[in-house]
Amino acid sequence: MRLPIENVSTSSLLKGSLAGLSATWPMTATMLGLRDRLPQEWLFALPPRKISMRAAKKAGLLSHLNRKERTRFTWLSHFGFGAGAGILYALLPGGLRRLYPLAGPAYGMTVWAAAYLGLMPALGLYPSALRDRKSRNWLMVASHLVWGLCLGAAYGLLQSAGKKAAAVP
């Protein structure tokens, strides 16, 4: 399927990035909140931390980062991934994005599947979701549903605000 990338404006890509970035906040709160409700023996480092640290190690950076810098690197990469995935959302056909109550969460699940069933295992950054704990998978699925819903809503609001601003003489 060929995407009509030439029809996508820089403004639309920026809105996608901002929507993805802003949607990562409630997603992260969901992840942390759900993890903290698990029994003590089930507590674990969340995938964004593990992925970020493995990426830093592969890049030869890990040994140069102290504890505080590792935390910053985790946050930066996690929110950067959310912003980047938001840019890809902006490339979806407009008719799909207008259905954000459904399209956003569906896109969130697509990002989860692409990342945890394909990209992260292929890069050696995280094992396939098929080999991970069910509790962690459910936590990540719920978090990506929240991210997708918030992404779609934020993108829609940014699009509406842009149209209203353009209509003002």
Mean pLDDT: 88
Structure classification: mainly alpha
Q: Measured on Cα atoms, how large is the radius of gyration?
A: 17 Å
Q: Classify the helix fraction into a percent range.
A: over 70%
Distance between the termini: 39 Å
Spell the H/E element sequence.
Answer: HHHHHH
Report the principal-axis shape.
Answer: globular
β-sheet strand percentage = under 5%
What is the number of beta strands?
A: 0
Largest sheet: none
Low-confidence segments = none
DSSP summary: helix tally: 6
Structural account:
The chain is an all-alpha fold and 169 residues long. The protein has a domain at 16-39 and 79-162. It has 6 helices and no strands. The longest helix has 34 residues, at 134-167. The radius of gyration is 17 Å and the shape is globular. The chain starts with 9 loop residues before the first helix and ends with a helix. The model has no long low-confidence stretch (mean pLDDT 88).
Summarize this structure briefly.
With 169 residues, the chain is mainly α. The chain has 6 helices and no strands. It has a domain at 16-39 and 79-162.
Outline the secondary-structure elements:
Layout: H1 10-36, H2 47-58, H3 67-90, H4 94-97, H5 100-123, H6 134-167
Helix pairs in contact: 1-3, 1-6, 2-3, 5-6
Features:
mainly alpha, about 75% helix, about 0% strand
